[in-house]
Write a structure and sequence with these properties.
The complex is a heterodimer of chains A (112) and B (110). With 112 residues, chain A is mostly beta strands. Chain A has strands spanning 5-7, 10-13, 19-24, 31-37, 44-50, 53-57, 64-68, 74-78, 87-94, 102-103, 107-111. Chain B has strands spanning 3-5, 10-14, 19-21, 24-26, 32-38, 45-49, 60-61, 72-74, 83-90, 99-100, 104-109. The mean pLDDT of chain B is 93. Classes of the chains: A mainly beta (112), B mainly beta (110).
């Protein structure tokens, strides 16, 4: 089991563009959470998906949206990119009802 | 409001010296506390959680509800312990989001 995988590894975009990040959960996991980690900060919760629906959301604007597919994989979409969106985006998977989360390697997004 | 505070950005210790990474939290209720570690060029991984009350890689952490603390300790630091350490909490019921501190970089000097 490769664990949680994310793609792409790195991404460079310009202000105003849109981006899609992808995540495949650990085998057997059905819940996916997304976090944003700015430089020098701890990860911040964006939202969580279970059964293809957004179940919980952190303090992020509507420009951040997501999707979960029937195979439990997930996408994070960010519209109208701002310079401040530059960060490492982490995906974490878990089993429903469990608090232990397993993290992917992250996608480094740079907005110029 | 839920908050995790790690007061030290950087902690440097000599090999063989004791280590204590501080973590204080704010939460109205009974949270579950975690320590995550990120070694160089590796992903964030769970080190230990308070409910399991086990020692991992020689590290232990005790939840002190009176002081709202969850400090990470190891009696004798090793060079391979050098990494970024994050304290985190969740609401206690399943699948609640993790709230992280800003992290402490531990540097163990040979």
């Amino acid at each position: 089991d490769a664990g949680v995988t994310q793609s792409p590894t790195h991404l460079i975009k310009t202000r105003g563009q849109q981006v899609t990040l992808r995540c495949s959960p650990k085998s057997g996991h059905d819940t996916v959470s997304w976090y944003q980690q700015a430089l020098g900060q701890g990860p911040q919760f964006i939202f969580q998906y279970y059964e293809e629906e957004e179940r919980q959301r952190g303090n992020f604007p509507d420009r951040f949206s997501g999707h979960q597919f029937p195979n439990y994989s997930s996408e994070l979409n960010v519209n109208a990119l701002l310079l401040g969106d530059s960060a490492l985006y982490l995906c974490a998977s878990s089993l429903r009802g469990a608090n232990e989360q397993f993290f992917g390697p992250g996608t480094r997004l740079t907005v110029l | 409001a839920q908050r995790v505070t790690q007061p030290e950005k950087l902690l440097s210790v000599f090999k063989g010296a004791p280590v204590e990474l501080k973590c204080n939290y704010s939460y109205s209720g009974s949270p579950e506390l975690f320590w995550y570690v990120q070694y160089s060029r590796q992903r964030l991984q769970l080190l230990l959680r308070h409910i399991s009350r086990e020692s991992i890689k020689g590290f232990t952490a005790d939840l002190n509800k009176g002081e709202t603390s969850f400090h990470l300790k190891k009696p004798f630091a090793q060079e391979e312990d050098s990494a970024m350490y994050y304290c985190a909490l969740s609401g206690g019921s399943g699948n609640t989001p993790l709230v992280f501190g800003k992290g402490t970089r531990l540097s163990v000097i040979a």
